[in-house]
Amino acid sequence: MDAIDDANQLRETPKNEVMSFFESAPLLKDAAEIEKSLKEFVDRNTSSSGNLSGKANRVVCITSGGTTVPLEKQCVRYIDNFSSGHRGAASTEYFLNAGYSVVFLYRRGSCQPFCSSLPDDPLLECFSVADDSSIEVDALHAETVKSAITENRAAVAEGILLKLPFTTIFEYLQILQLISVSLRDVGPSAIFFLAAAVSDFYVPWESMALHKIQSASGPLDIRLTQVPKMLSMLRNEWAPMAFHISFKLETDTDILLAKANMALKQYKMHMVIANELSTRKEVVIVVTEQEKVTVRRDCTRAGAEVESPLVELVVDRHSTYIKKFDA
Amino acid sequence: MDAIDDANQLRETPKNEVMSFFESAPLLKDAAEIEKSLKEFVDRNTSSSGNLSGKANRVVCITSGGTTVPLEKQCVRYIDNFSSGHRGAASTEYFLNAGYSVVFLYRRGSCQPFCSSLPDDPLLECFSVADDSSIEVDALHAETVKSAITENRAAVAEGILLKLPFTTIFEYLQILQLISVSLRDVGPSAIFFLAAAVSDFYVPWESMALHKIQSASGPLDIRLTQVPKMLSMLRNEWAPMAFHISFKLETDTDILLAKANMALKQYKMHMVIANELSTRKEVVIVVTEQEKVTVRRDCTRAGAEVESPLVELVVDRHSTYIKKFDA
């Protein structure tokens, strides 16, 4: 299970694997509603007469949190991918500040934009009820709470932040496809910033147990199938003009850069952001065909996040990318 | 995988399986701190001179939410058990109202007492910032939000609600053992109300992959070992005097009552609460040696929960149980 990927991995993902994944997946609920909100979002945030290099027309799809893989159709047990969603939530804030509109495709219950520096349970931890029965925020958290509420309301009201939730790998990939089709007209002004922790293995829907798996007296053997590598599909078929950024998270530093390079080549990503589980909040390495840039959190500023210089770098490289199309 | 448990299941859990589970489990962080807070909680809520049948001395340990099973030591992937924690959180409120003190052993991020009727993300959904920069609650949610904040603060301040979080099956079972030892002196006045969705299968720590499992080109086979049935240990060794209630959740109605009866006999539970995934918020069946009682939500009252009549019934049967010891 610990073998490093070999050259076999460089093969293209066969289209029939992808087709069979989608054909066997449970139907996405609310697909029509999601398409409608995406269409309105794109109409609102791009103008056909606009200058493609103007940031006003720039859109980023940020995926965030982990996808689940159900082990039963009437799901009691599932395999999950650890991800608080902090990276995606914080990056959303910096992209909005940089003038981008954001489609935030997030795991239900994961970290939300503008809330990443709040306690786990802000309602019970930050508030109290005064004698006159009005609700008060504790002084310690007042500023953070106020700016979270204000900035979130503003972004949603201005229509520059569209939040779409998912739970399973099936929902995630189907919604991602809808987003990529909706953003096709945005061309090179669109970024896919794929920070979600996506399941590598799953149980195909048709071979899944219907009911809760019973605990018999022996061990349980589960055979998991590899999820087709959708990055190739996204890059080559769904959104061929967009600027594509994927993430590589490992716990073993020795293989991290090799794996990041592999992803860059295999999926023709424009940028791979390599990060190691234990230091991911301090430092990431941005890998492109031309460069390897180490991006660090500004330790001299309290509350500074590594996502601030990271998004700054991404925006700069995205500008260069767009210019190539203008020329 | 779908076979109904057979008579083999009625065997006792061998003690060496349990010992080996605990010996190989990663060490519980903060064990000393948890023991200290439990000791203070028990001292505060029971008096040695008290009358055992007085509710003032009654304590319930409510477990809530699902336990996880890591698939890697440096955990990226894990198997999770679906459970919002709503049952445990709502039951906590009703037990507090009935005069019990509550140890709430809950999955991090799961539903909290007094918050079960709030939206998923109360901070962003219920609040706004007024022109004078004060924080306001939307009229629609004002009462629910206020009572959530007030009642939670009151319960914590009075010291009648002790919240202890867990994530993995290893943490859950180690903390449950600490609680059972701490509640030993409470004798028959203690209830274990085991609403958590506990993993049946796990990967033993010593055979677990150290790093993130690599996605090679083929399928992935995982062999899971059965978690030793700790209910027997809890019932017979850790807290032999307490009143024990376990839950049986199934998606297949046909096997539900048979499984509930099996659990009653196998683990010598005083009560098993049987519930079916799709109707669990409407109806549960309380199974004891003497009776089978169907408990339904009061559909005539808006906002009524099935946990209200359920806890009422539990408290009544617990009173009868305590009286046997007084006699």
Keyphrases for this structure?
homodimer, 327 residues, alpha/beta, Rossmann fold, 8-stranded mixed β-sheet, two-stranded antiparallel ribbon, 9 helices, DNA/pantothenate metabolism flavoprotein C-terminal domain-containing protein (chains A, B), DNA/pantothenate-metab_flavo_C (chains A, B)
- Name the overall outline of chain A: globular
Overall mean confidence score, pLDDT of chain A: 88
CATH domain fold name of chain A = Rossmann fold
Query: Could you tell me the strand content of chain A as a percent range?
Result: 15-25%
Helix % of chain A is 25-40%
Q: Which chains have the largest interface?
A: A-B, 72 and 73 residues
The topology string of helices and strands of chain A comes to HHEEEHEHEEHEHEEEHEHEEEH
Low-confidence stretches of chain A: 1-10, 49-54
At CATH level 2, the architecture of chain A is 3-Layer(aba) Sandwich
Structural class of chain A: alpha/beta
> Going across the major beta sheet of chain A, what is the strand order?
7-4-1-8-11-12-13-14
How many individual β-strands of chain A? 14
The biggest beta sheet of chain A, please?
Answer: 8 strands, mixed
Distance between the termini of chain A: 47 Å
Subunit arrangement of the protein:
homodimer
How many helical stretches of chain A?
A: 9
The level-1 CATH class of chain A: Alpha Beta
Q: For the record, what is the CATH homologous superfamily label of chain A?
A: CoaB-like
Supply Rg of chain A. Answer: 21 Å
Task: Give the domain tally of chain A.
Answer: 1
Organism (chains A, B): Solanum verrucosum
Protein name (chains A, B): DNA/pantothenate metabolism flavoprotein C-terminal domain-containing protein
GO biological process, one term (chains A, B): coenzyme A biosynthetic process
Pathway (chains A, B): Cofactor biosynthesis; coenzyme A biosynthesis; CoA from (R)-pantothenate: step 2/5
